[in-house]
Each structure stands twice: as C-alpha cells, then as structure tokens.
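Sorry to interrupt, but I need a hand with the structure work. Could you add the entry underneath, on a fresh line?
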Amino acid sequence: MRRFLPWIIGGGIVLILIFYFFSVKNTALRKDQAAQKEWGNVETAYQRRNDLIGNLVNTVKGAADFEKSTLTAVVEARAKATSVQIDPSNITPEQLTQFQQAQSGVSSALGRLLVSVERYPDLKANQNFLKLQDELASTENQILTARTRYNESVQEFNGYILAMPQSIFLGSYKEKPYFKSVEGADKPVEVKF
C-alpha cells in the first residue's frame, strides 16, 4: 500500500490541476459570453435609434419646409452607421473606434436636425414630433446604459484573463477594448439659434 501512496497523491494532484484548468477555462468562457451579450445590447440600442431616425426624418419632412442638407446629413450618417459591423467575439480597438466614429456622426447629425427644427413652431407643437424627440432622448439614455454595462463586463473579462495564474492557461483569450468618449466630447456643446 505504501508504494502506491506516491502514485495516489500524484494522481490526486493531477486531477486537482485538471479540474482547476477546466474551471479557469469555463469561467473565462462565461465572462466572454457576458461581454458579447452586452455588446449585443449596445447594438440593439443603436438599432433602435436608427429605426427612430427614419420616423423622425419623415415627420420633419412632412411638417416643415426644411433644409434638405440637414435631412440628407442625418440619412447619410444613419446609412454609414448601419454599415459598420463588428464581430463581438473578435472585437479590436480599431473596429470599435470605427464603430464609435460612425455612431458619433449620427449623434452629430441628429443634434443639428433638432437644433434646426427649433425654427419651426408648428413642428415643435406637433405631438408626433414631440413623442419622437422623447423616444430619441430615451434611446440615447439606453445607449449610454448599454455602453456602460459593456465596459463593466469588459473590465471583468479583462481582469480575469490578465490576472495570474489564469493568464497562464488563457493565452488564447485576447483583451477586449473599452468604449471611450469621442474626440472633443470633453468640451461643452454650443447651441446657437
């Protein structure tokens, strides 16, 4: 019995290491899936905004003799934003930057549209337009929340895969990028009428 004791202890240690390895891999997989789910929520919030833009543009078009250039800018920004696709399982900082720039263009064009609309008192009193404005504001808040939750899940994922000793077993997992504010977001927006 004594001669088998080292084999039993060695086998026990190997089994513990194997179970630890699987535990590390499974936890990393769950955290990766959570980050991908949060990315899906970000895309859903942006899709909601893109869907609302068409209604907003049509409402404005029908209710005001409007500047075509502003409407065209909104429609083009929306088209550009919807053309940028990202694979959440293999997201890179460059892809995320491209995505953010496209979405920033939509936000900027919408801002110009809403400021320009202030010149049309009939439109401002239109219930459909007011409802769409409220929906857009709500959507922007949903986008902020989705991006914040994505960053939280990325922080958890990155912290897990980069920490020791997990990083030894998780060399194939890559760090995910965070959402960052767009260039110039630290300056206040100037609105002129």
